[in-house]
Amino acid sequence: MVNKTPIFNLNAVLREVNLSADVLRAWERRYQLPSPQRTAGGHRLYSEYDIEILKWLKTRQEEGLSISRAVSLWRELSASGDPLANVKNPLGKSEAGYSAAFANIDTFREQWISACMAFDATTAENILNQALSLFSIENVSLHIIQRGLYDVGEKWMTGSASVQQEHFATALAHNRLQALIAGTPAPLLDKTILIGCPSGELHTIPGLLLTLLLRREGFKVVYLGADIPVAQLTETADSIKPALIILAAQRLPSARNLAETASLLSARHHQVAYGGLVFTTTPELTARIAAHYLGDSLEGSISLIKNLVLQPLPLENPPVKTDAYPKLLADFEEHRGLIEHRVLHSMRDNGKEFAALQEINRFLGDSISAAISFGDLRFLDREIVWVSKLNKRVDVGGDIYPFYMKSYQAAVQQELGVTAAPILDWFAAIDKTSHSKEI
Question: Residue 257 sits in which domain range?
Answer without folding.
Answer: 187-320
